[in-house]
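Methods: holo model generation. Sequences were used as deposited, without trimming of termini or removal of tags, and paired with ligand SMILES retrieved from the corresponding compound records. Each pair was processed once, and we did not select among multiple samples. The sequence and magnesium ion SMILES for this entry were:
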Amino acid sequence: MTLALRSSVTRIPSRALFAVPPSERAVVVGPTGSGKSELLYRLARRYRQLLVLDPKCEFRLPGARIEHEYRRLGTGENPRILYRPTPRDLGNATAYESFFWFAFLRKETMLVVDETMSVVDACGPRCRGMRACLVQGRSRGVGGLYATQRPSLVPLAVFSESRTAWVFALNLDDDRVRMEKTFGIPRESHADLPEHGFWFARKTGGQARIEGPYLLDLAGGDAMRE
Ligand SMILES: Nc1ncnc2c1ncn2[C@@H]1O[C@H](COP(=O)(O)OP(=O)(O)OP(=O)(O)O)[C@@H](O)[C@H]1O
Ligand SMILES: [Mg+2]
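and the model returned the structure below.
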């Protein structure tokens, strides 16, 4: 692990956020209100072929097709789809499994999973479709941005298959331990983060490099980093 940590926070515009290659996976972790979704919206806009699981119906992606019925995910031409399960399907394992299998079969898609715990709540810790996307997605061009409040309760594969993490200040020891074990973020370092601040970690060759703390400037530009 290498650390590039400063004592003062650096404000960054969203165009300075690291761009996850389209067939890679990445995680965004932090408690409620920390800024995960704000960060996800800005990352997601960079991908042409996109499939978002948005159970809280709050994702902002102008121009995307909004679909509520999992059986209809495959209809339509728009390459960007926001899937907002109907209230009936929020706890329905078939709906969630279908979402991931649709992505898997579609290929060349960046998956965005806001509220990854909603998948665990619906399917239990073994969602076969999600696991297929995580473990076999690369060869099919299926990437993923997975956000969660509770990293310790989400399947380990989400972290072991991801090379990139944005880590907001976690409150609970189990969650801090998971990020220390998977990305080398020292468990005591969460206390050093300001409100909405995060660490950025990137694994290369088994080594994690950790940078920060950063604060996303919500008023900053949204153009993609070259
Ligand atoms: N960098 C930031 N600067 C200022 N305000 C921010 C920042 N990031 C997020 N916020 C604000 O904090 C609030 C919560 O942000 P957001 O919805 O992204 O949190 P979240 O982590 O997704 O929470 P939840 O887990 O409950 O979904 C929003 O009002 C958002 O505008
Ligand atoms: Mg959110």
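The pocket of magnesium ion (ligand 2) is lined by residues 36-37, 114 (CB under 6 Å).
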